[in-house]
Fold these 4 entries.
Entry 1:
Amino acid sequence: MVGEPPLSYLTWWRMTTAGQLLSRGDQPLAAIARQVGYQSEFAFSKAFKREFSLPPSDYRRQRRAGARMVDA
């Protein structure tokens, strides 16, 4: 119904949600991993890096730096 295989869509949804959580809050990676359906922080980090080409911690840092530039 969404034009792509179910697992691809699920991964996209999880990573998009994780990106929003990383950008907005200070939750530990393990908590975000659980919220988006991963049992292990390692598996989550690996999947996130595959999708965004950088680890979740770097993604969070870049998003925050960008937000500070916009606010200035």
Entry 2:
Amino acid sequence: MISQKAKYAFKALIHLARQPQGETTQIDDIARQAGVPRKFLEHILLDLKHRGIIASRRGRAGGYVMIKPPGEVTIGQVLRAIDGPIAPLSCISRTAYQPCADCPDEAACAVRRMFAGPYEAQLRAFEATTLADALRHQSDPVDLDISRDIVSAGAPI
């Protein structure tokens, strides 16, 4: 699951991405329109600013603005900016790799093998899905009935 902080980041970014290019939006407007508590939003926007996704401007017409086009901001980039590494195991992370302390042989590790494939598929989807996709599909109904694809561990296949 993504953190609440990451969910708020996506809401704020989608709000900013909907604004005309180059137009700034004040933090209070983002908080109100995106439904994000202002106190959380300050930290989130700073994290996104440090990653070069948004910028801030001071002054009367100040606020926050997207500096990366929505089509270049991926789910993976945002999750890493807000929550850090997204791999389920450090030994398969592409950006924060570390060998597992309790694993004598990475190549023979069954746990690593078990997670590598699903993580690779998820990572491909995270890197291929952008804010522009969220904006493009905003009126499409979302099919959340994934239960037909889930098989319980004890069920016969």
Entry 3:
Amino acid sequence: MSRKETFVFGPQDGVPPRVGPFAHATRFGDLVFVTGQMPTDPATGELVPGGLLEQAEQVRRNLAAVLDRFGLTWDDALHVRVYLTDFDGFEGFNAAYERWFTGPLPARTTVGVTGLAVGALVEVDLVAGVPAS
């Protein structure tokens, strides 16, 4: 049985500082669970300017930076959870989201919420699989 390993990254890794008591990722066997990323700039820890699509792009970059620490890409994602504060941007988000992948899309859940940390409009977390060597 594999033991769980937790990982905390920082701006030097292209990952924003934590805003609470959690790991950026947990690995258990061949699965990597990535904490929800906010649309914050890794260098400043501040929310990026702009609307949903600009924030979603920063979230994509932040998650990609965590995946990269494990030698993974978006195409290794098995399940993605998206949290939106306003579903008026759902279709635009979906169009941008599809471009995050070059292979088949993973399973996904999208949840409408009344608020997110740091005043974000979007947060995304995911579970990725480590391919067999």
Entry 4:
Amino acid sequence: MIRLEDILTPDRSLVNVPGGSKKRALEYIANLVAREMPDLDQQTIFESLIAREKLGSTGFGNGIAIPHCRLPGCPAPISVLLRLEAPIDFDAIDGAPVDLLFVLLVPEAATDEHLQLLRQIASMLDRSEIRERLRQVESSEALYQVVADAQKGQ
């Protein structure tokens, strides 16, 4: 089974990211992934995330969104964790603005694996103590460490 700390890196765990809007946050994610993985096209990543949002918001509640999509040319699951400097409207199910984004990009063919990873993310973020720690840490390394520690505890 793939674990979150295997697909998330400290370089893709960032605090105090400028948000602005849902669209700007998704553009930021696409740019970040494309910079780190030049084989993946920034515009394709962005369009895939937007297309998924059009099916229904990935705003999960409690200030969290889990933007995710299948991505052409994606070799393996990739995750990004962002804490925004200010909450943004993400059309979340509870109407609350979002300040934590846990992104999951998976290969086009991924099915069970994709769902399993989404479940891992959702169950981790369902725990209020994890959300609090993610919101309190000061550095990107510490943000990543919260996820690694939470996974060890499961």
